[in-house]
Amino acid sequence: MIVTVPNPVLTTPAKKVKKIDRKINSVITRMMKALLNQDNPKGVGLAAPQIGLSYRIFITHPTSSSKIEVFLNPEIVWKSETLVEIERAEKEDKKSLKNDKKLEGCLSIPNVWGHLKRANAVRLKYLDGQGNSQEKEFKGFMATIVQHETDHLNGILFTQRVLEQKEKLYEIEVDEEGKEKLVEIKL
User: Fold this and answer.
1) Residue 177 falls in the annotated catalytic set
2) Superfamily assignment of 8-184 in CATH?
3) Whose CA is closest to 31, among 73, 59, 69?
């Protein structure tokens, strides 16, 4: 089950994984099941705090055909200066406003979306699911996912980033005819 705001686990920095044991593997399995079972909207990444557990773990699944990747104790060691708005790798539902290529959302903040600029490329140091030390550069949509999920591990929600950039937050309302429309959330 995915934890939603205002649960404090979402705004508290997560604890470092000290060793990969049966307990941590169980957490990763729970995260994978939660992400794969998520629908409307589909998720592209999930951090351990989003299932209520304070561990520095996140997983990514940018498209329905991609393999789930596991990241433990991730640390962004470099960001490009070029900022971009989200560009989805795949649109599962082309008619949905939620899949507007410029809107970022979060499974822990249901039905809230916002325009957010993030670094176009990042370099990440982390341990993979087998405990191997890795350092890899991510670009485009994957860079956005990495930044979003790393923020989760630091207790930062995407809505905070949107407000820092003085952008607007939106929710989707459905009219009498079943059409979706974006409505600005007044703060």
Assistant:
1) no
2) Peptide deformylase (3.90.45.10)
3) 59
